[in-house]
């Protein structure tokens, strides 16, 4: 679909072969590896100069077609030669992949990179299973800085089933959109501040829709939108460079033996409210996506004091077996735990911080999140159960625009009676190795790549969608 994909296709073929082999050897939980297909694509090019931000939407991206089950999704930022770019140069705030239906073939105009989400009556966002307010956090895949070392592979016999001709509305086609938000931090005065979208570093007083910033809004996505500029050190000048998001999709053709998973995204900022208050232009309802962590000013005397704990309760409409889960946090994150109504721990997902310089190991950045793979049937959530989500951040320094998101994949029990009596086995720990090398892994991601709130203007100033694209 994109012009440059040809050379990549060639590269991809090589890569696919490698991935296949590695997949089979790396992923022992996978009984069906031979049927898994993979393809590597790259996004349209984007250019970044020192301190610049790109936050674009690409509609109608290359994506596997037909009735399929998605098994994983990886991504990373690369340059024109395919070299991995470290987060210390280009911070990947997030990439997010959404599904949508559209009436007619997308025009060339519609597939051009745009700063804001496309809106048209011919266009229906086909979101995940919830549970935020409509249009918020509806993506299927999405990660940020942690993308290189986050395992999001969906084990057999499960998959995210898409492209089902019976589910696509009559007269519509299914397509995918990609949103990439990247911040170039070369030469900036405050690298963490730029990645945390501190408003004063961006010298902005209005958000991307030319609305004045909310009072006391000191940092977050409304200050680091497309084509903003973070403050540079005196005298810094540098060349722009061309970058891409390289993404790899792993899938299987649909067959009866595949068990579909439901994709839920939980947000620790969720207020639980679901109706839009029309009188408030900012409608602080439901999932806020971002929050701030105040600095601990009193000094830290004992363990635990330097940790900010944020909690939210939410109800899962339709329960089942937990198949996979993973959290998404930003720098400073200290893990997220999901608890059941009875207090049982469902999953704890912990960040891994880089310790070096090379891509995938950048000091101070979250370069991976651990994911949970309970033996199917061993961890269940009941429909209507109230869960507690707890997100921890280190507050030795304050943070703006952080996130506490949690991706939860749930499936209907396969053979209820058999599974309920089935205990996790000895060696096959429910937790697949926490941090497998990213290149080897299939990341199906869903994460929230750091950040993704999109307030989309729908005609009226006060009618926004809070999208984590
Ligand atoms: C900040 O923005 C104002 C206008 O919005 C502009 O006049 C000023 O030069 C900017 N400052 C910097 C350092 O870019
Ligand atoms: C990250 O870099 C540090 C410092 O160079 C090194 O000791 C460590 O082994 C690296 N980690 C990985 C996973 O490569």
Automatic annotation (TrEMBL):
Signal peptide positions on this chain: 1-21
Domain of life: Eukaryota
Pfam families noted in UniProt: SURNod19 (PF07712)
UniProt keyword Transferase, yes or no: no
Keywords carried by this UniProt record: Membrane, Signal, Transmembrane, Transmembrane helix
Bilayer-crossing regions: 435-456
UniProt protein name: Stress up-regulated Nod 19
Organism name: Taxus chinensis
